[in-house]
Amino acid sequence: MPSLAVILAALLLALPWAMRRRWRWGPHPLARVAGRILVFFGLTAAAALLLAGRPEAAVRMPGEFAPAAVFAAVWTGIPFPVALPVSFLVLAMIGGGVVAGLIARVRRREPMTLGDVSGMVPRRVSDLGWGALVSVVAGVGEELYFRLALPLVLSLLGIGAIWAFVGSALLFGWAHRYQGVLGITATAVIALLLSATYLLTGQLWIATVLHVALDLNGLIVRPLVAGMIRR
Questions:
Q1: DSSP label at 178?
Q2: Which residues form the signal peptide (predicted)?
């Protein structure tokens, strides 16, 4: 079994490969994006958990994260564990996306975004399925990588859980550098919020669902309502 240092090195080496634009496997540009995320984030994270002997962490929050969970509870003032109204939050996010799309449509402008995601937005109705695929794969793969595997391996190597999540959030922002400085900053903040969600609920699936909803909002809902997607 490889050492934790080797597993960490593999995780970090997968990061730049996940962002490469020369990945050519897939029938559509967005399918290729989903393929990169699936292989270099999702499958790499799953392999890291297996090789570290911690596959159960995917369904049960590791004890190593307890200090970070306590910090998140103190920082937010929300007691741990908390039961979040996931369905309500998802509906609120989608509803906000619809409103933002309608405002953009009335003003005849593209919806405002906290970064340049134009290259990821479907431009035709026939592309919507690919956009949805990217949203789901990114939500699942990136949460496994940035909210679980990477912080866990860092924690097992002796880095405090709090700093492990901070470092992972910074790398999450860097992974979205194609969105520009504003996008990097926004995604790093989103990473911290998703980390807090995971730590306060103890459930990775909740952070994953919110991540998927966030991506669907940005790639599908707002552009579709705003009239950006052609037939």
A1: G
A2: none
